[in-house]
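pls design
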């Protein structure tokens, strides 16, 4: 007997094993003005590497950076995370789902377009006017948010 019968079957990814498979910095070095964003992409898969859509990922950042508390993965299991800050320096961004966590650093730079003199201090005054001795001043230059330049 050579009869056969076939049926289509569908396998679905196992959401119970959702994990952060990857966290990649896409854009880095944005100005610390609270508006320009650094961007990361997170990928969520199951234990077998299958992409998981519609998964809620918790996000956090340190050093005063702002991020959405949660993001939801798209059909390919990825979602972009935008991070802004008014503080120049390194911010660590962490993505978490279940007990799976990955972190990456992004860097924000001071905004030179808003440079201003924040402080001017006389260090040494009253030097002899002989062409050799000097008075000394210390100046502190910052951006609009107080980040040193």
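designed seq:
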């Amino acid at each position: 007997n050579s009869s056969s019968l076939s049926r289509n079957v569908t396998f679905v990814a196992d959401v119970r094993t959702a994990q952060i498979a990857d966290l990649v910095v896409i854009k880095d070095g944005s100005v610390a003005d609270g508006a320009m964003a650094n961007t990361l992409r997170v990928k969520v898969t199951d234990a077998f590497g299958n992409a998981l859509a519609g998964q809620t990922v918790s996000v956090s950042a340190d050093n005063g950076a702002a991020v959405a508390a949660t993001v939801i993965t798209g059909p390919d299991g990825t979602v972009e995370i935008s991070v802004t800050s008014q503080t120049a320096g390194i911010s660590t961004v962490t993505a978490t789902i279940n007990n799976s966590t990955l972190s990456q650093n992004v860097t924000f730079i001071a905004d030179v377009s808003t440079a201003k003199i924040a402080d001017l201090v006389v260090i040494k005054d009253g030097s002899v006017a002989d062409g050799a001795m000097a008075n000394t001043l210390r100046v502190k230059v910052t951006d609009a948010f107080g980040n040193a330049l």
